[in-house]
Description:
It contains 16 helices and no strands. It is mostly helical. The longest helix is centred in the middle third of the chain and has 32 residues, at 112-143.
Amino acid sequence: MTAVTALSIDMSLPAQPTLAAVFDVSSETAQLTLSVFLVAFAIAQLFTGALSDRLGRKRVLVSGLVLFAISGIACSIAPSIEVLLACRALQGFGAAAGPVVARAMVRDTQPAGHAARLLSTMLAALAIAPMIAPIIGGTLLDVFNWRAIFVALAVCGVLLILTSTLLEETHTIERRTSAGIIRGFREFFATPGTVLPMLVSCASFSGQFAFIGDSPFVLIEGYRVSPSHYAFYFAGCAFALMLGSLGGRAMLRAGRPPRSLVRAGVCMLLVGGWLVLAGTHSPLGLAGFYTPMLVYFFGVGLTSPSATALSMEPVPHLAGTASAAIGSIQMVCGAVAGYATTRIGGSNPRVFAAVVVVMGTLACMLGFAASRPLRQRILG
């Protein structure tokens, strides 16, 4: 369920230059097929989380996946870039149910430490999607055309609908809340200990999505990587993300608290960001750009699950709303970072590096503040 977003974005990455050529639009306009998906995904989460708190997890999950599957077919027959963008927005609305409900179900059933460990496992599984999705997308693009990518996404939606019928409802009737959307979000943001860890996750995700959105142009046009090889470079970063999340899971199982993983993770983000800035100003070429990004993605894998668990810990009765708030703001930050990086820098790796170093530095500052014990955060 959590892989819905990664599949929807990463399968279409190899087609970005093709979409620009087929519809005769600029690269930043083609990149909007990613950004509008994420913006719609972010907005939909605001409603999905609150609805799952009121109506239960399973009903909301199935409804979202049905919309996701239908909109995938609509994307595949889009006659223009405008129609494609509208259909991608609908697809983003439907996709929101998967990760929001998945995170809420973890919080329904687990305390913070165990939740962080399960979220690390989910992120590791999620990282498999970016490894294979661009390869699948590139193969479908070569064998058929760009429309086949969205047909494949619709098929994934149908399979997920069938899978969701096997899940048990974790938010029982007696635990459901009648609080409105605005009241629920007001309570989440007003509760001490929720906002700082959420902002850490947002900063790390912004650097990650700057790579997701701009890497086709930086690697293919800037460093002359062939489209067929691009998927393997992207898969390498996803593998680093998986290793980071699995390493975090092992440390959590060994008894390390989530806040210590946040500190370790944001240090990796800081180091990776400054190394990519140095590498793009060196004669190392592609290696100077790509190797530090592996460090950054490893840091994301360490940071994000524990930061999310810390943010959701103070509001167990609003797990859906908390999950929605975290995911929504993450996606808005990622969409803005991806679009702005592509629009300003295009295929220039140095502009991209500047974005990553800013996000890594910001995440590090926020991370050390957020990883203090809750009582210290309230008093200090």
